Amino acid sequence: MGNLIEVKNLKIVYRANGRDFIGLDGFSGSFESGKISAIFGPSGSGKTSLLMSVGTLLPPTEGSIVYDGRDVYSLPEAEVQKLRRKIGITFQEPTFINVLSVWENIELALYGAGKLKAEFKRRAEELAYKLGIGDILHKRPTEISGGEARRAAVVRALAHDPDVLLLDEPTAYLDGESTRTLIKLLEEEKERGKTIIVTTHDPVFDKIADAKFYLQHGKQIT
Questions:
Q1: Mind listing the domains of the chain with CATH numbers?
Q2: What is the DSSP track for the chain?
Q3: What is the pLDDT of residues 10-68, one digit of tens each?
């Protein structure tokens, strides 16, 4: 796919305890291939809701998300599943299966993407060493630090070589050197034509992002 993602008038409403809560109220924007797009905003501003919806994991209450001319939430489930295999995503709090090693968690993601092949395993290992976590792949997720878990989640998201990469606060818990290494990797993936969307508080993305969006209290601001 050409990796153009168009979000139009997106609204997300959550229902809890008999009340409606607006997670996102009318976001619009385009995300292009070969670019890093950063979504800035404080906690609770709707950044994660937006990312989850773009990642086909949270149906919007109103509005649309269009991948290369196709409205994601109007597609048959089989087509959505195919699309998901072209998306890599990390969550604000990395989640792993704790009875498996970090490497086994990565292999499981490759299997789910239909890419459990030697070339993708090699790619995963290369990514891990690039990000400085090659020596912790044999460990259980409970035995690694928060920063290592975040980098492992990035490796897992990138291992199957997706067209679209969605990262929720990817530099949280990372020290300066680890952040610089991750930024370098994202710039390399950008040059390879990926559509990269990052939610962040980190001012480093203010310098490298090709497109910037701002959220506050669920609303898009300029």
A1: 1-85+203-222 (3.40.50.300)
A2: ----EEEEEEEEEEEETTEEEEEEEEEEEEE-TTEEEEEE--TTSSHHHHHHHHTTSS--SEEEEEETTEEGGGS-HHHHHHHHTTEEEE-SS----TTS-HHHHHHHHHHHTT--SHHHHHHHHHHHHHTT-GGGTTS-GGGS-HHHHHHHHHHHHHTT--SEEEEESTTTT--HHHHHHHHHHHHHHHHTT-EEEEEE--THHHHH-SEEEEEETTEEE-
A3: 999 998 888 888 999 999 999 999 999 999 998 889 999 999 999 999 999 999 999 98
